[in-house]
Amino acid sequence: MRKKKYRQGSVLSTHQRSKRAETQYRTSLIQVAREIGAIINQRYDGSNDSVLEIQQALSDYSALIDSWAKRIATKFVETVSQDNAKLWQQHSHEMRRELKQLIAQAPVGHVMQSLVHEQIKYIKSLPIEAADRVYDIQNRAIEAVANGERPEHFIAMIADSGKVTASRAKILARTELGKATQALTQARALAIGSTGYIWRTAHDGDVRPSHKQLEGQFIDWHNPPTLDGLTGHAGALPNCRCYCEVSFSDR
Q: pLDDT tens, 222-245?
């Protein structure tokens, strides 16, 4: 059955994001970062053997948190979906009854499932990334000593591994919130006949030049732009604060 369309030329702004989802997710990821820091600092003594022990311990930790990661990822995606649905409902007074039904029945289940799997992968990758970082720094320390340099700087870098992972966790939470919001918005928009959206930025000095150039441009859902070597829609790129202003025109 052919989907009926919203009023031609109309738009729906999706700039609001689920702050509670981001806060909850960030808090959970920082817990992982703290545990990673503890694992590293309890074992590292400057030797290669301790680095191998750290690698094994972090690999074990990644496997250990599998069930926990599934719960955290599922809660995050469900919260984002609930808040995204509420945003659409806030605009529902402008929509015809049949369109409200289409939105309510929008096939977002497969999108949510994909998002959950992706978040599990990211959560479990944090310990592995930290292990790789320690290994790389240790090699640089060995090379420095061989060149007659002191290794204290590299030892301090390894000691800060928990903080580095925590910073990574904060960016990850913000980026994944944007990606999840965009994916769910797209699924609901396509369900009622939207062909694309207007790219909107945060309108401040932190907006990247490549993103600023797209301000006000119409983007086809099926043809995401490539910016700075990365392809994705507004809000779905790393640390991107842009958003989709859903369009219901026939462009």
A: 999 999 999 999 999 998 989 998
